Amino acid sequence: MPIVSFSFDKIIAERKKQKLEVPLKAKTSIKITEIKEEELTLAGGRKDLLLRFFFEYFVDYQTDQASVLLAGNVLFSGKKEELEKIFKEWKKTKKFNPEVSKDVLNHVFVRCNIKALSFEQEVNIPPHIVLPRLTPIAPGKKNKAEDYIG
Q1: Longest dimension (CA), the chain
Q2: Which of 16, 77, 89, 134 gives 20 to 30 Å between its CA and that of 66?
Q3: What does the alpha-carbon distance between residue 79 and residue 48 come to, in Å, rounded to a whole number?
Q4: What is the pTM of this model?
Q5: What is the CATH number of domain 3-129?
Q6: Could you tell me what percent of the chain has a pLDDT over 70?
Q7: Domain segments of the chain: what residues?
């Protein structure tokens, strides 16, 4: 079941305090806010069912110092019977198949993390995830193969 499209509907990056207080901890959350059925008419008049997942991705810098909100939607395709089942389950319980959830949320998570990092840089707040850093090797010490963690 592939992701057909991905788009942002809302982007808000806000630095609420001029001087940020240490320690600055970022907490991220992601949620599906709605699922809608959509019909796509293909060549030859054949109709295909798709599901549009609406999401919100939020980065909150604790003690209300800064935040990033990314909202948008993902268009998802698959077998009609499976999509109908997902949609019915969502309408009833506001939950859906963990396998689909994994696919959709992982896609959203990757795209939003990258975009959030860019906007955090634009409003001059630290990245919400730990980025790799280079560390110098002390003189006389060699890099050992067992030190490699990649």
Answers
A1: 72
A2: 134
A3: 9
A4: 0.84
A5: 3.10.420
A6: 91
A7: 3-129
d(CA 77, CA 150): 35
Give me the DSSP letters along 5-58.
EEEEEEEEEEE--SSPPSS--EEEEEEEEEEEEEEEEPGGG-EEEEEEEEEEEE
Whether the upstream peptide bond of residue 23 has omega within 30° of 0, thus cis, is yes
CA distance 110 to 104: 10
Whole-number Å distance between alpha carbons of 67 and 11: 11
Tell me: the pLDDT tens digits for 56-114?
A: 999 999 889 999 999 999 999 999 999 999 999 999 999 988 888 899 999 999 999 99
More confident call, 21 vs 143: 21
Handedness of CA 102, 105, 108, 111 (dihedral sign): negative
Please choose, from the candidates 96, 123, 121, 101, the residue with its C-alpha nearest in 3D space to the C-alpha of residue 15. 123
Nearest-angstrom CA–CA distance, 65 and 19: 9
- Confirm if 26 and 62 have CB atoms less than 8 A apart: yes
Q: Which two tokens stand for residue 23?
A: 């320690």
